[in-house]
Amino acid sequence: MYEYFLPCLIIAFAGFTQGFSGFAFVLVALPWLTLLLPIKTVVPLLNLMLCCISLILLVQLRRYLQWSKITPLLLASLCGIPLGVYFLKTVAPWKLELLLGAVLISFPFYYRYTNLSALRLHPGWAYLAGFCAGCLGGSLGTSGPPIVIYAALQPWDKDEIKATLVGFFFITSLVTCGFQAYSGLVTAKVVTMVFWSFPFLALGVFCGSFCYAKTASGNYRRAIMAMLLALGLLLVGKAALG
């Protein structure tokens, strides 16, 4: 039991982050869990957990879910995955992390000092965001940032933003879990970890959702920008350390 305690605490905190914002579960949990567990255990574990989180949040946000907003993102991400895999094989990961980190650090300042209220995105931007997400998913295992940035630029309220993020992550994590199970990565160790960590995950998600419900839409957007900035700094630091 003790060997699962620290991983469960990490998963609970990452679950809180996802429950509040609708993203960042993997980005928060992955660096810490790989210090405690083998990467081949961590990756399928987090994808299974992400499926569970997304299902919980989909039930909470079902009134705001619009698949017409999610479908272009999903279709384009499938096209971007092969290119991401190519980048993974040919480009040093730290270079990709540095580039992504720089974008994530720059965007909150762009958002803060640009009049985005007058911005109206062409529907084609959904396909570009999805394609970039697929590239990142295939290369770094994290497809979230382009989807988050795209959703944050839309004139949607916080429920529409979060529902779109959750719907996208649910489908992509479900497909990923299917491939990982077929490849034999979902082992008895992974299933045991899911069993022990699920109560902690659920607690974190529900606490995050509670805080989300108490947060005004404007403050929610500001919280997203702060999280993107923090994740960008984390990625740049990770890239700098090699």
Count of folded domains? 1
Count the E strands.
Answer: 0
Order of helices and strands: HHHHHHHHHH
Overall pLDDT confidence: 84
User: How can the largest sheet be summarized?
Assistant: none
State the distance separating the first and last CA atoms. 33 Å
For this structure, the quaternary state is single chain
Helix count, per DSSP?
A: 10
Strand content: under 5%
Query: Cα-atom Rg, whole angstroms?
Result: 17 Å
Indicate the low-confidence ranges by residue numbers: none
Shape: globular
Instruction: Tell me roughly what share of residues is in helical segments.
Output: over 70%
Please state the structural category.
Answer: mainly alpha
Describe the protein in words.
There is one protein chain. The chain is mainly alpha-helical. The protein has one domain (2-240). Helix content is 81%, strand content 0%. The longest helix is centred in the last third of the chain and has 26 residues, at 188-213. The protein is globular and about 50 Å long.
